[in-house]
Amino acid sequence: KLEQPARLERCTERLQRAGDDRQGLVEQNRQHQDEGGLGSILGSFLGAAFILMLPILLNQTLPVIASPLQALGATLESRWLLEFAKHVRSTETTTHLEFIIFGALICFLLIKEPHGFARLWTLAKEKLRLWPFPY
């Protein structure tokens, strides 16, 4: 008869601990959903804008960069810079550079900010809100 209450107490303690662990997992899940990526609507829109706009921006700016590169190559008398500036004007090289830069930026963002653009937006807003008084 004395073993029954002790066993009951141990079982209730185990159930309480399991409930606490489950509550902790629920809280962690909520935090991850609020941080960005596909867990937020803003992150979906910002990611889609990045995927859509960055190749267009690169396509328009890479040929424009060729003229200053050529002038810099002439100033420094750098043969490889002059050759690179000639190749940047070609459509094939521009397309390859777009893919390289685009892929590198995606890898960089996945490593540096795995929570996505929504998290970057939230951090920027917080920093700007506290900007004049960072203490």
Tell me what the structure shows.
There is one protein chain. The protein has five helices and no strands. The protein is elongated, with a radius of gyration of 27 Å. With 135 residues, the chain is mostly helical. It is 84% helix and 0% strand. The model has no long low-confidence stretch (mean pLDDT 76).
SSE layout:
Layout: H1 3-35, H2 41-76, H3 79-88, H4 91-112, H5 117-129
List keywords for this structure.
135 residues
Strand percentage lies at: under 5%
How many beta strands in the DSSP annotation?
A: 0
**Structure class:** mainly alpha
Number of helices: 5
Radius of gyration: 27 Å
| Overall helicity | over 70%
Q: Profile the largest sheet.
A: none
Unreliably modeled segments: none
Let me know the average pLDDT. Answer: 76
Q: Helix and strand succession?
A: HHHHH
Q: What is the approximate shape?
A: elongated
Straight-line distance between termini: 62 Å
Please sum up the structure shown.
The protein is mainly alpha-helical. The protein has helices spanning 3-35, 41-76, 79-88, 91-112, 117-129.
